[in-house]
Amino acid sequence: MELQGKNVFITGSTRGIGKAVALAFAKEGANIALNGRSEIGSEQIAEIEAFGVKCIGVSGDIADFQAAGDMIEAVVEGLGSIDVLVNNAGITNDKLLLRMTDEDFNRCIQINLSGTFNMTQHAVKRMMKQRSGRIINMSSVVGLMGNIGQANYAASKAGVIGLTKSVAREVAARGITCNAIAPGFIETEMTDVLSDKIKEGMTQQIPLKSFGQVEDVANTAVFIAKSPYITGQVINVDGGIAMQG
Questions:
Q1: Which residues of the chain carry a pLDDT beneath 70?
Q2: Distance set, CA 199 to CA 95, 204, 211 (Å)
Q3: Which of 40, 97, 142, 205 is the 20 to 30 A CA-CA neighbour of 33?
């Protein structure tokens, strides 16, 4: 898929990895729909439009099935279609298992996994009619490896992988691909607050001995969107931390 003039909807795209993904697609000439739970600022839209593309803001809660459908419709109305959906929005709520409440667990599942399902189902209905589309889901290496204090997050991101593979099989005949990206430790606002000692300990687990950059993930998303013969895959962007034999 050539991205020039295509329409890309990225959930959770006002900062961090989501923002980097939006900028990467805009640089390729794609029109962008930004998303967050609160209203998208004019300065955020202007930053994208500086690349000579169209940009709209669509706010809403992906965990609400009806709201997810309304957002898809808003993007179609504003841009004309959805060619690429990047399910990036998600949360963490880290606690050890014995201290984790059912609300702590279910909230991660509701946003990270159910939210991905909500957006994907509504988008696929549109993509099947046009017989083309790309769905890119943001998982995590934690969904592959597990992690202490992240049973809820790991379960949600492992679920995203299962969802990705199942959707890929269902929609392939209509020219739609569905893949997942599994980032490792990436430098974001979330990791900036960690102490140097914690960062050093995390770095020692990574074969390449450094955190990744948001652009590493964004460039992978662009690569997947351009690739018509890759589907049902999980691509790790993790410096080698989750190598599999």
A1: 244-245
A2: 19, 9, 9
A3: 142
In a domain, 67, yes or no: yes
**Residue 86 within a domain:** yes
Any domain includes 49: yes
Domains of the chain: total: 1
The one-letter amino acid code at 38 reads S
Query: Whole-angstrom Cα distance, residue 186 to residue 200?
Result: 13
CA 41/CA 138 separation, integer angstroms:
24
What's the domain range around 229? 7-184+215-236
Query: Is residue 229 among the annotated active site residues?
Result: no
pLDDT at residue number 244: 66
**Catalytic: which of 24, 153, 178, 218?**
153
Residue 93 DSSP one-character state:
-
